[in-house]
Amino acid sequence: MSNTLHGRLMLDLASTSLMDDERSLLQNPHVGGVILFARNVESRQQVQSLVSQIRAVAPQLLIAVDQEGGRVQRFKEGFTRLPPMQYLGDLMIANRSAGLRLARDCGWLMASEVIACGLDISFAPVLDVDRDTSSIIGDRAFSDQPELVTDIAAAFIDGMNEAGMAATGKHFPGHGGIFADSHLEAPVDRRSWTQLSEHDLVPFVALASKLGGMMPAHITFPQIDPDSVGFSRFWLEDILRGKLGFTGVIFSDDLAMKGADVAGGYVQKAELALDAGCDMILVCNDRAGALEVLDYMNEREIEGSARIGAMMKTMSRSWAQLENDPRRVATMAQLHGLAANN
């Protein structure tokens, strides 16, 4: 673990280039990261330029995106369109070795393209166990079979790591068991510990040592603990750190989501998430909320985290190197061929 302390807040940006007020905002010592959304993207070259602007004013920031594939892929123009992860899971059912190989190559390809734009991480992979139960997960999940999720996600993570990117598992301890979308409401999952540990938790337990980061779900499991997972010391400290032995970075899911409102306003949410064990908290799509959290961090003199530096990319590559990379060309061709046959 690096001794460098990183700010504990990750926030978003308004547009495709840095605004004047954002230049000073990113230099606030409590800001440790930036996440890019579709509104921040016009082209590959523009993304590279935006990342260069960020690095010029705050080189220490962790820069992230949600580039899972399928319907959650922020970078599209000039990037490989990755299939939903369920597609890879289904391929593995049909042909185990081919599915694992393609998952590893897709993990490498996704990470390589993101890194070639100068970013550090994509928040991936989804380790939720689902097929069509959850309104927000669905085909973002590899499978509704826990062991299959574990095996194919491990291959995807290996590919990401080969490219120089740490993986973040989400949404601990599993978002696949309920229909509700935590962006829009506060989901409650009434399953028991036994039910959860025999199903949804299986991939998280098996892969904890392979993950650099973990993102908890905004879900409450009242049969297990009264607090929503991202605000629960039981889930984050006792289970994730203690029982699973996870030593990486715990990222809150976005505190602007409705599922987080069970904890109160932004200051209450930030305080509870940090006290529960989150290393970095996300406040997105609400600049006023992010500024409120920064004021709270300044007033309380919240100490930075030494863990966050481990999520920075470990390799660099240029698009010129990547464009004709045989592995990229072969993986793109395979994806194109598979799509044509479906």
Walk me through the topology.
Elements: E1 9-12, H1 20-25, E2 31-36, H2 44-57, E3 62-65, E4 67-69, E5 72-73, H3 85-94, H4 96-116, E6 121-122, H5 146-163, E7 168-172, H6 193-197, H7 201-207, E8 213-216, H8 233-243, E9 249-250, H9 266-276, E10 281-283, H10 287-300, H11 319-323, H12 326-340
Parallel strand pairs: 1-2, 1-10, 2-3, 3-6, 7-8, 8-9
Antiparallel strand pairs: 4-5
CATH superfamily: Glycoside hydrolase, family 3, N-terminal domain
Low-confidence stretches: none
- In total, how many beta strands? 10
CATH topology: TIM Barrel
Please state the average pLDDT score: 93
Q: Walk across the major sheet and give the strand order.
A: 6-3-2-1-10
Helix content: 40-55%
Shape: globular
User: What is the SS-derived class?
Assistant: alpha/beta
The percent range for strand residues is: 5-15%
End-to-end gap? 45 Å
Q: Describe the biggest sheet? A: 5 strands, parallel
The level-1 CATH class: Alpha Beta
Number of helices: 12
Task: Supply Rg.
Answer: 19 Å
Give the helices and strands as they follow along the chain.
EHEHEEEHHEHEHHEHEHEHHH
CATH architecture: Alpha-Beta Barrel
- The total tally of domains equals 1
